[in-house]
Amino acid sequence: MKLFSIGFTKESAERFLSLLCNAGVKHIIDIRLNNVSQLAGFAKRDDLRYFLKEICGIEYIHIPELAPTKAILEEYKKNKGDWSVYEQSFNALLQSRAVEKTLDLNQFDNSCLLCTEDQPTHCHRRLVAQYLVLKWGNLEITHLK
Question: 2-143, which class in CATH?
């Protein structure tokens, strides 16, 4: 099974949508805590849902259980926290939520995890992907950007 990830920051709508269409993505799984922010531009929830469906035939799904809590996010972003602390906190959150037991594995095949960060290195989408591989196995992860 293939699972992709992508961030929209520092990307044009054209390139973002082209990456998704060319990869054969079937579903975008939005794992942002706040998916309606005006700062999201073309990736604001309702606009993105429309663009994905009309341009690429991709279904939009929001799974907030895969997002960090506001406290974890603020500690890292606003207080310029340490990435390793964020990583530990977020992984512990995923463990406590036991998301692998409530999510449908089949929904993730040829799907793409969406978050804000332009690169997966310091983004929770990479952590979610790694966690799901650990729990489910059988997932091939490709970071589109």
Answer: alpha beta
Alpha-carbon torsion (136, 62, 26, 48), positive or negative: negative
Distance in angstroms (rounded) separating the CA atoms of residues 81 and 126? 18
Question: What tens-digit pLDDT sequence spans the chain (145 residues)?
Answer: 999 999 999 889 999 999 999 999 999 999 999 888 766 688 999 999 999 999 999 999 999 999 999 999 888 887 777 899 999 999 999 999 999 999 999 899 999 999 999 899 999 999 999 999 999 998 999 999 8
Six token digits for residue 76 = 């890292």
* Structure tokens belonging to residue 10: 């520092």
Interatomic CA distance for residues 19 and 36, integer angstroms: 22
Name the pTM for this structure.
0.93
Phi, psi of 142 (to 5 degrees): -130, 120
What is the residue-wise DSSP string for 33-57? Answer: S-S--GGGGGGSHHHHHHHIIIII-
